[in-house]
Amino acid sequence: MYLLGLCLLGSLSWTRTAASLVLCSVDKRTAPVGGSVTMQCKLHSAEPDVLQVTWSKQSGDFAGTIATSSRSYGQRFLGAYSHREVRLAGATQDLSAITIGSVTPGDRGCFQCIFNVYPQGASMGSVCLDVTEARISDPHLDVNRSEEHHVISCSATGTPAPTISWNLTGTPEQNPQDYSITHPDQTVTVISNFTHSPSGRRERINITCVVHHPALASDIVLSKAIEDPRDDPIEREDPPVMAVVAGIIVLTAIIICLFLVIVWRRKRHQKYQGCWTDTETSQETEKMNEIIK
């Protein structure tokens, strides 16, 4: 009984030791939907005698053996991966790599590489795969205008984070500022904006925002033209100055009208007064003539 216990203890110790002999290139890989990913593991042993290498999926939408490579049967692909774009490679018998093409969300999970070594038995290592779904919402280009300055903003939301660049007809007064917001669903909103101050002369500025993202077959290009609202010199005057000028003009017109009315009335009065004086003089002359007669 004591001997049996020692044998079991030795067996367990050897299993842990054997399992620790397999080292994988990384513990976790990340791949986008539609891309490809390679996972690689290496057996560390003084004199490896590998009978078979097995790759199995331990978690995710599918669990089970997906590929084997042995001396007797060569390479075989099984289960959900039998009709997939999958390759096994290994320069030596102690190195194995599996490549999965056209990655789908169902590939997300942990994979195990098992080396069946004679006479030690199975040694294994694992790699977990995370799949990112590339998606993007409709980008926006907005211009908030005022007489003092324009705020130009371009934004886009997606996974992974989009990239925004600018094509401008001139050099901006300041470099665009970029901000990012990560949402609970792991999508990221990227906002890029800058401020433009009108020069006061007639000008037309063409602004182009370019959005780059893996989910796009080609970049999204958004363009707008900005007209300086203060092209007209009169329109460029400040409203208070315009009001004062208008008031002065109206007041001057009223004064001129009053002056003309006063002059006209005075001339008319002088005309009537002259006529009345001539009449009186004529009457007195006639009276004197009658007396003389």
Automatic annotation (TrEMBL):
<protein>
    <submittedName>
        <fullName>OX-2 membrane glycoprotein</fullName>
    </submittedName>
</protein>
<dbReference type="GO" id="GO:0034113">
    <property type="term" value="P:heterotypic cell-cell adhesion"/>
</dbReference>
<dbReference type="InterPro" id="IPR013783">
    <property type="entry name" value="Ig-like_fold"/>
</dbReference>
<keyword id="KW-0732">Signal</keyword>
<feature type="transmembrane region" description="Helical">
    <location>
        <begin position="241"/>
        <end position="264"/>
    </location>
</feature>
<dbReference type="GO" id="GO:0009986">
    <property type="term" value="C:cell surface"/>
</dbReference>
<dbReference type="GO" id="GO:0030424">
    <property type="term" value="C:axon"/>
</dbReference>
<dbReference type="GO" id="GO:0150079">
    <property type="term" value="P:negative regulation of neuroinflammatory response"/>
</dbReference>
<feature type="domain" description="Ig-like">
    <location>
        <begin position="34"/>
        <end position="113"/>
    </location>
</feature>
<dbReference type="InterPro" id="IPR007110">
    <property type="entry name" value="Ig-like_dom"/>
</dbReference>
<feature type="domain" description="Ig-like">
    <location>
        <begin position="119"/>
        <end position="223"/>
    </location>
</feature>
<keyword id="KW-0325">Glycoprotein</keyword>
<keyword id="KW-1133">Transmembrane helix</keyword>
<dbReference type="InterPro" id="IPR047164">
    <property type="entry name" value="OX2G-like"/>
</dbReference>
<dbReference type="GO" id="GO:0043025">
    <property type="term" value="C:neuronal cell body"/>
</dbReference>
<keyword id="KW-0472">Membrane</keyword>
<dbReference type="InterPro" id="IPR036179">
    <property type="entry name" value="Ig-like_dom_sf"/>
</dbReference>
<dbReference type="Pfam" id="PF07686">
    <property type="entry name" value="V-set"/>
</dbReference>
<dbReference type="InterPro" id="IPR003599">
    <property type="entry name" value="Ig_sub"/>
</dbReference>
<dbReference type="InterPro" id="IPR013162">
    <property type="entry name" value="CD80_C2-set"/>
</dbReference>
<keyword id="KW-0393">Immunoglobulin domain</keyword>
<dbReference type="Pfam" id="PF08205">
    <property type="entry name" value="C2-set_2"/>
</dbReference>
<keyword id="KW-0812">Transmembrane</keyword>
<dbReference type="GO" id="GO:0016020">
    <property type="term" value="C:membrane"/>
</dbReference>
<keyword id="KW-1015">Disulfide bond</keyword>
<dbReference type="GO" id="GO:0098632">
    <property type="term" value="F:cell-cell adhesion mediator activity"/>
</dbReference>
<feature type="signal peptide">
    <location>
        <begin position="1"/>
        <end position="19"/>
    </location>
</feature>
<dbReference type="InterPro" id="IPR013106">
    <property type="entry name" value="Ig_V-set"/>
</dbReference>
